[in-house]
Amino acid sequence: MAERALHTSFGGRLRTVSEMIKLSHTLFALPFALCAAWLAAGGVPAPRTLGLVVVCAVAARSAAMGFNRYVDRDIDAENPRTASRALPAGLVSPRFVLGFIACCSAVFLSAAALLGPLCLALAPFVLAVLFSYSYAKRFTAAAHLVLGFALALAPLGAWVAVRGEIAGDLRLPLLLGALVMLWVAGFDVIYACQDAGFDRAAGLHAIPSRFGVAKALWIARMLHVGAGAVVLVLAATSGLGWLQLLGSAAFLGLLATQHALVRADDLTRVDVAFFTLNGWASVIYFAATALDLALL
């Protein structure tokens, strides 16, 4: 009875949706948005701007993940790995999830409007890109890059939010965006290895289902080698000091560790590689950047 009450009350359904969209995984892109905000401001951004950037990042990511779960609910029901998710398991209704998506989208657009007319003008484009990812795997094995591009908008958006314009030297935000795109695409390929067989049978497109798990892991490594190269370029061009270098080294070390944990014949530690190590990597990179800026 207690379990049923949890999912029929409004609060229970909201908690269920929060768990369904893995709200804690906002840590993946948010620290890089904060990096861009700190670099754009040359230090700690104005509290109002910083708060609105965080609201935008959380609301946009929540809307996108809710949309992904809604669009994929029938696919998830057929996949043994995802059949227990809230929508296919009947723990929350599609109508409630649609309402959640609408509310999160409204919060995102409202926060963007408070950041200025340029941010508001760009906000619908951001939502369109975020929502498009949910359909990408129906058409292309490059869906991982679509996801990477969607999350790469976080640092680009944060830079525009702080600066209030798209002008001047844009090397830093573009490099941060490239880093996020390659990093996210790489670890998404690793995560998709779990569903290679199901995706192939269901006619869904992904690098593991197209090339096999072993080759997919090599592609993930190459994407992360690219991410590592961008990290080194950022370290050389950001003008920051030894703390940022340590953060860069830690980021690269955590990338290497996740590849050491996952093999084609052993995917049992994918969750550790995907969730834990990537969360720490982004947080450490931001902390090092923020501390280094504070010491300048």
Task: Report a brief summary of the structure.
By secondary structure, the protein is mostly helical. It has helices at 2-8, 10-20, 30-41, 47-71, 73-78, 94-115, 117-136, 143-163, 171-192, 196-202, 207-211, 213-237, 242-261, 270-295. It has one domain: Orthogonal Bundle (Tetracycline Repressor, domain 2), CATH 1.10.357.140.
Q: If you had to describe this structure to a student in words, what would you say it looks like?
A:
The chain is 77% helix and 0% strand. With 296 residues, the protein is mainly alpha-helical. It has one domain: UbiA prenyltransferase (Tetracycline Repressor, domain 2, Orthogonal Bundle), CATH 1.10.357.140. The longest helix is centred in the C-terminal third of the chain and has 26 residues, at 270-295. It is globular and about 55 Å long. Residues 1-6 have low confidence and may be disordered.
